[in-house]
Specification:
Radius of gyration: 16 Å
CATH topology: Rossmann fold
Structural class: alpha/beta
Protein name: DNA recombination-mediator protein A
Distance between the termini: 39 Å
CATH class: Alpha Beta
Number of strands: 6
Organism: Cyanobacterium stanieri (strain ATCC 29140 / PCC 7202)
Number of helices: 6
Number of domains: 1
């Protein structure tokens, strides 16, 4: 039994190493908290800019904070390599987010989730984002339950997960 576990662990490790070493472009999801200090937002924006300049496709959602910063960076680098998936329809987003989102070329709305709470819709949206990516970069607080669950689900799907904590 322990040999089966060791082989499984080696297989997982080999997959993760292969994903990290992949030099071709990747589909990278970048998600995170809405409550982010402006200095952190600038760092996230620079990271998304660099990722897209490197030829990677960036997938995020449309919330303020982390996701908005990711959108700004990707839009500066190459708007065609950005996909934004909303938890609900565009008109359910805050006005300041709507202005930014209307400029996104690849915008996916989920109006079927308008009847759900934002938390439920966000969890569904994050699952959709994870299903489309190879790697997840997440910025969260230790008590960011929806984001922590998203990271767990991504790991279960054997995605490469990089989690940064604000606290």
């Amino acid at each position: 039994m322990s040999q089966a576990l060791e082989i499984s662990n080696l297989d997982t490790l080999a997959q993760e190493l292969a994903a990290i070493q992949q030099t071709s472009s990747k589909k990278i999801a970048l998600l995170g908290s809405r409550h982010v200090p402006i200095t952190h937002q600038h760092l996230i924006e620079m990271m998304s800019y660099a990722l897209v300049l490197g030829g990677n496709r960036l997938i995020t959602s449309g919330a303020a904070g982390t996701n908005s910063a990711a959108i700004r960076g990707a839009m500066r680098a190459d708007p065609n390599l950005l996909t934004v998936i909303l938890p609900q329809s565009l008109d359910r987003q805050p006005k300041e987010s709507q202005d930014q989102l209307q400029k996104v070329i690849h915008l996916v709305e989920n109006p079927d989730n308008n009847h759900l709470s934002l938390g439920e819709a966000s969890a569904d949206c994050n699952r959709e984002i994870i299903s489309r990516c190879q790697q997840l970069i997440c910025f969260a607080f230790h008590d960011s339950h929806t984001l922590m669950k998203t990271c767990e689900e991504a790991e279960e799907q054997r995605k490469v997960v990089t989690l940064f904590y604000f606290d």
